[in-house]
Amino acid sequence: MNIIELLQNFDIPHKMHGEHHHTSKNFVQVDCPQCSKNSGRFRLGLGLNIHSANCYICGRLPFSEVLSLLTGQPTNKLWSLLNYHSQLILRKKLSHKGKLVIPNGVNQNLLPAHKNYLRSRGFSPREIQKIWQIGGIGIDAKLSWRIWIPITYQKEVVSWTTRSISNETKYRYISASEQEELIPHKTILYGIHLAQHHTIIIVEGPLDAWKIGPGAVATFGISYTDEQMIMASQSPIRVIVFDNEVKAQSRARQLFNDLASFPGKNYLVNLDAPDPGSASEKEIKLLRSFFQ
Fold first, then answer.
1. Angle between helices 75-95 and 63-71 (to 10 degrees)
2. 125 Cβ partners below 8 Å, 6+ apart?
3. Are 138 and 109 in contact (CB under 8 A)?
């Protein structure tokens, strides 16, 4: 059952895109049960493709609580109706495949420069290569002196990104273009193929995930997509650990609020270190305790 079917099933008045001045694409408008119940003002927008609720007056509201107030039904019953629809959305987004193109300069044997960079970041080159299957790129027209990072989904490499071993480069990360990946990398959580616990720790970048170890997943930056959020929602416990800066923390709180619309528990952790990749062993040990 999708959102529209749910509203129809419980006879809840609603307006689609083009039917009311408050409506926008990919949303359906209903009366906000918090500020304008049964008013006919249709101030509250419910996402059609992702679980979100936004009121023009109240702002962002917990999706599950809103649905419960609108329908008079317990949240567990509503989620049993809507969960299958979320799975369909995710499968549809991940079913469109292109062609994987691996850069010519990738070598599975890391060069001394790559190994020295990894050691400078506190990593064991042998361990990182074994777990995360990385490669190295030396001199190349576009991707010189980078670590090649494969992105795996369901035991298949579907895309890739790279990390420069120089801090003086303009772009630290360069990823595959749409023409070079089976599945768009921003629809996938990096490291999800290694997450076998009931818990995932959500970080920004692959190196942050390496520092924490298997069970950590990355969104490839502070922005995240609907597909990544739905994928994260499938884990019962989600721990969000973004970089310790204002914009990153603001986006982390937004992700926390968005995931609160799904069944399960969410935790927002703010480290003393600038980011998980440079966190102390004490902080990493604390994060890993979520897996226990």
1. 130
2. 110, 114, 115, 118, 119
3. no
